[in-house]
DNA sequence: CAATCTACCGCAATTACCTCA
DNA sequence: AATGAGGTAATTGCGGTAGAT
């Protein structure tokens, strides 16, 4: 279901959850998302939360009801208590349904996930969220310490949530499922970012080490060249200095003419940093 | 059985609000 | 009081997947 598709690449250990989304289809089909002047949310027999009351929500026409791209109008109402705020405002209230089809889907999904807020309340909330002064201030919920702690704890157990877990957590936190979902998304992103930073630091260190090694080898090469000029041309090589390539098993340091050009011809190096551990690379 | 449609989900990128120095 | 930076909630758009037709 795509839950774990990126688990390996992101370094996360995701739990494969059994999705119930197939049954979430309270859809009023539309061919053009932007043509949604009227959003109807209706229950179906496949509704995953049968204990809830069916709801019917009507949205206003888009004409004369301009909604900005970011749908900021929906969060107009704000109060000091984040919980109260989360109850009063709906990040995906019906207003959102007028912008994109995607949001419409979200809204419908929300409508079955979060039925404790009934349709009428949400409509009135939407109306109360409507701008009276024309400003579109997107107010931001601030999670309490308790909420953050619980979310964090839950994230440690599983970095992704199936719909049931999301619903349960949202109920427990007195948040909307969508808010829980968003929190987990952002949390995963932060984790990934942090991991990327760690990886970046590691690669930087590797780079520094390799640069040092390169510098050292260059210096050594210069010394050897100088040494070669100072010494006789056909100087017999001590057997102890011969090394064998572990990959191709050729004996280094023994060329046809006995000259000393092979990288394996010299005494073993005190240290060689090879991050790729590929002995054949030297051949 | 293949093609198409639809709904859903996760992610990346971005926006925008809020807090704090 | 003003302001810039950082944290983060929220939005948007896209791609992938699965079920239905």
TrEMBL record:
Residues 134-194 form the Homeobox domain. SMART domains: HALZ (SM00340), HOX (SM00389). The keyword Cytoplasm does not apply. Gene3D superfamilies: Homeodomain-like. It comes from the Eukaryota. The keyword Nucleus applies. One of its GO terms (cellular component) is nucleus. Its main location: nucleus. Pfam families: HALZ (PF02183), Homeodomain (PF00046). Residues 27-54 are annotated as: Disordered. Residues 200-230 form a coiled coil. Residues 136-195 bind DNA. Keywords: Coiled coil, DNA-binding, Homeobox, Nucleus, Transcription, Transcription regulation. Belongs to the HD-ZIP homeobox family. Class II subfamily. This is Homeobox domain-containing protein. It comes from Glycine max.
